[in-house]
From TrEMBL:
It is a multi-pass membrane protein. PANTHER family: PURINE PERMEASE C1399.01C-RELATED, URIC ACID TRANSPORTER UACT. It is found in: Membrane. The chain crosses the membrane at residues 51-73, 80-98, 104-130, 137-155, 161-179, 186-203, 230-247, 305-324, 336-359, 371-390, 396-415. It comes from the Bacteria. Keywords: Membrane, Transmembrane, Transmembrane helix, Transport. This is NCS2 family nucleobase:cation symporter-2. Its main location: membrane. InterPro entries: NCS2 (IPR006043). It comes from Microbacterium amylolyticum.
Length: 421
């Protein structure tokens, strides 16, 4: 598993060539690449716990552990970093607003278990049933409504420190459009730095906890709470996240296969199982749920280095950083204005990922069933429709997901029977 072969002279990658997952550059170059991947994932990975109120250090720890676990389960053949998934923000925010953190962690554990089970089914039955159950029009609608459903949260933070938020948002956009390659891909991270400096000049920083924190110490651990009655009323909000993680993992594997070797596709089921186990482990200890990271795919595409050895370095580095409470408190000190500026862009981008799924798969919106699948789901998600059934509360993401699935499959069946499709 660990028998990487040296690529070429170990220092350079020839034009038109890539460093395959089973290859590596020399160890100094591999280490440098690993640290670059840490920087690439850092901006998004710390942002999720910062928004949801989870401990940053704990999330960082489980992202590193999850990455190493992913490499082991996929037999060291699928390069990927597992960072915090933005799909968890909405249900975690809703769960923690109604209950304690334990209820949110229970939801994360439930998602992880279900995702691993999906991976087992894919291992036995193949991927075709997933594509049939969740075709591009449905998948795109679900991903889009999750992003747009978060828009009010962005405004809540934005309006509290509007000047800092505006500077942060402008910086994110400027970095993104002004640079190509690596700097463009970490525009959100750079925007946070600009916003943080702006907040410092405006006297919006509170550094008391940073000063009191020690340089070395254990992360904060929390246990999931399945016993509280309130937990079961919020678990339904987490179920659509499973569909998002399936789409993200499948897309990741296909992306790597396109850029390296088609044989990588055979590890799709293992990727789902690995991410499911990593998410379950994170939820069991107090961290955010994980997913394969597009930021790191971008780094691989730019460098043409797909060596899994690089990710062992990245995962190990994340684990080491997690044992510094002071670093965790630095991220916890990020003002709401900075978060408001960043999330204004970020939540919109999540929504656009769903729309990109429609575009990439050329979804035919001249068909009424596709029109209503997308239209109804988006409005439900954006308006955050609510429904109470006894002690259970269902909100926009759950209702929108169910609506997309029901409209597409039931509407499609009727259209085929009536021969109007």
């Amino acid at each position: 598993m660990f028998g990487w072969t040296l690529h070429g002279d170990g220092r350079t990658v020839a034009p038109g060539k890539v460093v395959a997952p089973g290859e590596r550059l020399n160890w100094p170059a591999t280490t440098a690449m690993g640290l670059q991947h840490v920087i690439a994932m850092f901006g998004a990975t710390f942002l999720v716990p910062s928004i949801t109120g989870f401990p940053v250090s704990t999330t960082l720890l489980f992202s590193g552990v999850g990455t190493i676990l992913f490499l082991l389960v996929t037999r060291n053949r699928l390069p990927s970093y597992l960072g915090s998934s933005f799909a968890f923000i909405a249900p975690v925010t809703a769960a923690t607003a109604q209950n304690e953190i334990g209820s949110a962690l229970a939801g994360i554990v439930a998602v992880g278990v279900l995702l691993a089970l999906v991976g087992v089914v894919v291992q036995m039955a193949g991927l075709a049933w997933v594509n049939a159950f969740m075709p591009p029009v449905v998948a795109g609608a679900i991903v889009a409504l999750i992003g747009f459903n978060l828009a009010p949260l962005a405004w809540t933070n934005y309006e509290q420190q509007a000047i800092t938020a505006t500077v942060t948002l402008a910086a994110v956009i400027l970095f993104s459009v002004s640079f190509r390659g690596f700097l463009g891909r970490v525009s959100i991270f750079l925007g946070v730095i600009v916003g943080y400096i702006t907040a410092a000049f405006r006297g919006e920083l509170d550094f008391d906890k940073v000063a009191d924190a020690s340089w070395i110490g254990l992360p904060q651990f929390h246990a999931p709470d399945f016993a509280s009655p309130g937990t079961w009323s919020v678990l339904a909000m987490f179920l659509p996240v499973v569909l998002v993680l399936v789409a993200e993992n499948v897309g990741h594997v296909r992306g790597v296969a396109t850029m390296t070797d088609d044989s990588v596709n055979q590890y799709t089921s293992r990727a789902l199982i690995a991410d499911g186990i990593a998410t379950t482990l994170a939820g069991a200890g107090g961290g955010s749920g994980t997913t394969t990271y597009g930021e790191n795919i971008g780094v691989m595409a730019a460098t043409r280095v797909y060596s899994t050895a690089v990710y062992w370095i990245a995962g190990g580095t994340a684990i080491l950083l997690a044992f510094s409470p002071k670093i965790g408190e630095v991220f916890n000190s990020i003002p709401v204005g900075v978060l408001g500026g960043v999330t204004t862009a970020l939540y919109g981008l999540i929504g656009l990922i769903g729309i990109k799924i429609w575009v990439d798969n050329r979804v035919d919106f001249s068909l009424p069933v596709n029109q209503y699948t997308a239209a109804v789901a988006l409005v439900i998600g954006i308006a955050n429709f609510g429904m109470h059934l006894g002690d259970f509360v269902f909100e926009g993401i759950v209702i929108g997901t169910v609506a997309a699935l029901v409209i597409y499959h039931l509407g499609g069946a009727i259209a085929r029977a009536r021969k109007t499709m």
